[in-house]
Give the backbone structure.
Amino acid sequence: MKRFFAQCYIWLLLIVLYAPIVFIAIFSFTESKVLGNWTGFSTKLYSNLFTGDMQGTGSLMLAIENTLIIALIAASVSTLIGTIAAIGIHNMRGKTKQAITFMNNIPMLNPDIITGVSLFLLFVFLHISQGYVTVVLAHITFCTPYVVLNVLPRLTQMNPNIYEAALDLGATPGQALKKVLLPLLKPGMISGFILAFTMSLDDFAVTFFTRGTIGLDTLSTYIYTDARKGGLTPELRPLITLMFVGILILLIVINIRNIRNAKNEE
Amino acid sequence: MTKRSTWALPYAIFLVFFVALPLCLIIFYAFQDGSGNFTLDNFTKFFTDADAIGTFALSLEVAIENTAICILLGYPAAWILANKKLNKSAVTIVLFILPMWINALMRTLATAELFHMLGIQLGKGTLLIGMVYDYLPFMIYPIYNILNKMDKSYAEAAADLGATPWQIFWKVQVPLSMPGVISGVMMVFMPTVSTFAISEFLTNNKIKLFGTIIQENINSSMWNYGAALSLVMLVIIGITSLLQDNKKEDVSGGIV
């Protein structure tokens, strides 16, 4: 009985929580401009999305492309910088270590808008014209701390003797790094990369303040401008649906893999 | 590996340049007028402007209300999800985590569209409901995580010593899950107090929150005033983060 009520509560919450996205998904299969007005089944919005033949402004595809490229660059650079930094931080002691860990935490604790405004002021102060490069730099700034935090625990858990053993057995420091250290850090680097990538994909405020006035749009800023113009471009409905389904599949695959791994370890 | 400590040097320089310096610039610009002279005018302007103070108070109010509702709805949900007897499937857990991975603006827009479709007038009510929609998963997840990892023997020991289930819940499980609640509060309160796009979507720009005024000032080149407002927000955030004594919040743990 208790279980029944508990399940009711959970599913009620989920139904309410998912109602908006379900409606968006249903109405992505009709052509009408406004949500809630069913004008018959059609996949036209989907084909419009892929052919770029938009009813609204035509730069949605470009915005998606920008979002993905920026996320890819930012996540890759962050993973590189973050991993090197984590190795350095791990080998530091005392006050310097505290100071750098504290600074590393700031971008994660700061609200996006503060990060955005502060970086905006930096670029204004240095008279750097804002655009693609400043957005990428800004994204690297708030992504790298997550990589550092994902790689550091790997280093602390690692047995330092393994590395020393490699050196004793005649490996050069470079070889020991490549063949011993990096494979051990890889899981942390991968989760750091994925986290950085999604952080970058999700970002709105920081991009908004650092993109300048050259008309650079990511998906978030595109949606923002679009919604402020009044009304949602209908093609965003299939896009939201596709992203939702994509992430759902991804999460399910990851979770099944995790459960399998856990079972194998047992 | 002794010399490896120098490997952090490039990142240290990077942090000074892209984190410390920009924050100092907020203070630098906040105490300046348009022509670069030292002034306190930006702050006098804010503290004497009834509209600005009103917006500020409203933002705090909405953030506190949103956080409270998220705890009230989220704690029982997290508790049920973490309880093996009440919830056996991993699917529900994935479903609660999933929204965290979807672009917040998209989710908000979907919610606003739903209100629109149902003919609900956009205003403070929709703002709160929409915020709860956006942030509830961020409250549930950290609480779920800590309840899930909690050593079951504490509750069993309490039961052996004669505690009723109700007492076990309030005196053992709730106190032990506080770090999760605090994590959740940080992940809900901070973004709500600083949001701007989300509130604009959910109220059709009728109700302005503090973040919106910052954005408007910065975008209309009133950098100094905008910087002063940002500094006010930084102080609020600073006070809030004192609540949380340096616990690493693990947003991704378990998903990836």
